[in-house]
Amino acid sequence: MKLPKPPRLAIWLADHAIPGKRNEALAGDLFEQFSQGRSALWYWRQVLGAILVGYTKEWRVFAWAAAMTLVLAIEIDGGHYWNSPGARAFFGFEVSPHWLLSFLSATGSILLRSLAVMLFSASTYFGLGSSSMLMEKWKEPGLWRRGWAYIWKPLAIGYLVAAIATVLLLAILPARRHPILVANIAALVPVFMAVVVMTLVAPPNNMRTGGLTLFRINPPNDW
Amino acid sequence: MPKRDYLAEFELMVLLAVMRLGEGAYGVPIAREIELQSGREAALGSVYAVLERLEEKRLVTSEFGEPTPQRGGRAKRYFRVTKKGVREARLARSALLNLWRGLRELEVKPT
Asked: Rounded CA gap, B17 and B30, in Å?
């Protein structure tokens, strides 16, 4: 007998977007309930509720990441913003015939750049989460028990090291005119911070027991 | 004196449901047991969020079963209450009983 299947997008969200430790079980429970006659609407409600609850549970990490990224992104663009004719006119420094257009353009530019950083962070988060889920699907029981499941740990650490090295290299390597490329550090800091935080938050399933516990992993009980 | 993690109402409900179910305690029956005994709807996401918190507090442990086709190839996660969990539940019960004792408003009236 063919079992009824919940909506595809909702399944994907249940597998990938619910933060927490090893949410395969939760996704499985939802699937089981659906196959016992629950409606698609019920399934959607449960998935969206679980995502909301999961993110609320980890609000400290996400709030910190979001605030840090926004503050740094705005700080970088701050000089440009305050010096724009629109902002100067709006805040009483200067009056220009095109102040409204300029003000809107400066504000839009800041928001877009901040959004770009947030989008990058979110993509990284979902990218890392999805890849770890895929790896889990490909796992073989024997390999899993021997510890190949923890391939995620060296990958994540390698990613962090590469990110740190990139920022440091770009900062230290001398340019022709400037001994240190301060602008490069400034431009990379919000992205870097967002990536670091999202990397620490991203690994779902058994790699994670909370927000920032990537480097303290407990093996499964049956090891 | 070491700091104690006090149990919130829903945490206590989930802990007691896991104790009542024994060996077969995983998400679906836990949520069903809470609904049955308290009349309160328990969303699976909320139940799992609480179970993870209880596991972080070392009041429950979990282990995975085998994946089944009825669950789209996903494994069940079985929960079991630890000794610390039983102790915490007992302390919560004792505290609540102490607070309830002598309250005339809560006495059950004969029908």
From this structure: 6
With respect to residue B22, please indicate whether it lies within any of the assigned structural domains.
yes
Closest CA to B30 of A11, A29, A48: A29
CA distances from A71 to A25, A42, A110, A120, B95 (A): 37, 39, 11, 16, 46
Q: Assess if residue B26 is contained within a domain.
A: yes
| Structural domain boundaries enclosing B33 | 9-101
Q: Which CATH number is B71's domain given?
A: 1.10.10.10
How confident is the model over B48-97, as pLDDT tens digits?
999 988 998 899 999 988 888 888 888 899 999 999 999 999 999 999 99
pLDDT-based confidence at A213, cuts 50/70/90? Answer: very low
Cβ contacts of A54 on chain B, cutoff 8 Å:
45, 49
Q: Which of A24, A52, A218 to mutate to test the interface with B (most CBs of B within 10 A)?
A: A24
Q: What is the pTM (predicted TM-score) of this model?
A: 0.57
B45 located within any domain: yes
